[in-house]
């Protein structure tokens, strides 16, 4: 179990455990549009949904998770949290979930979404085919062919409300390609934060937030620590409402 200040995460069976990427995204995701509803794509243990429940007044927080063990633990973590009445996890793949929310408009005879979300978050899989392991559940949680970036961006375009914000954390090496994919779907960067482990290390991750409005994005950098377990003031400020020892 991983204990945060206001909730805990059971992660005994889930392939992907609580990690820095998820905590960063949950703490960083912009909530400036005061969301009514939130969608967590590929929820795993439910970490992102729980962090956003703590940070927001959103009345509806939906999560989708395809892997059965992770789904079961996500449901348990939601039920055992202070916000169980606002959280719901669907045992489904992204394509299935999108299909369920589509219906034919009788006037235009075209598909339209019956529900859209003010905030969509995802900590998507991103290791490539070359790194497959014998652990199928972990691979499903962590490999890009389980949820290609193209599919994620397309779903975000369909599911995002007019003033919605779509946030992800991805490898820095994929940033340029992901932003280009998003622009093809008319989603434009609102904020870009590049993450380094230490001041002298290479940029490893990109936190990206998108909206339907084309604008000049805010671009900055976050350094996690100056030495082992010596965290920067910026990282402490970002995560102090969650980590017990911050």
Notes on the structure:
There is one protein chain. The protein has 246 residues and is an alpha/beta fold. The protein has helices at 20-28, 47-55, 68-79, 94-100, 136-142, 149-159, 175-184, 233-239; strands at residues 2-3, 8-9, 37-41, 60-64, 87-90, 102-104, 111-113, 117-122, 160-171, 188-196, 203-211, 218-223, 225-227, 230-231. The strands form four sheets. The protein has an eight-stranded mixed β-sheet with strand order 5-4-3-8-9-11-10-12. β10 and β11 form a beta hairpin. α1 (20-28) runs parallel beside α2. It is globular. Mean pLDDT is 90; it is low at 127-132 and 138-144.
Strand order within the widest beta sheet = 5-4-3-8-9-11-10-12
What structural class do you assign from the helix and strand content? Answer: alpha/beta
Beta-strand residue percentage: 25-35%
Shape label: globular
Q: Provide a count of the helices.
A: 8
Mean pLDDT over all positions: 90
End-to-end Cα distance, whole Å, is 18 Å
Order of helices and strands: EEHEHEHEHEEEHHEHEEEEEH
Radius of gyration: 17 Å
The largest sheet is: 8 strands, mixed
Instruction: Pick out the low-confidence regions.
Output: 127-132, 138-144
- Residue share in helices? 25-40%
Give the strand tally.
14
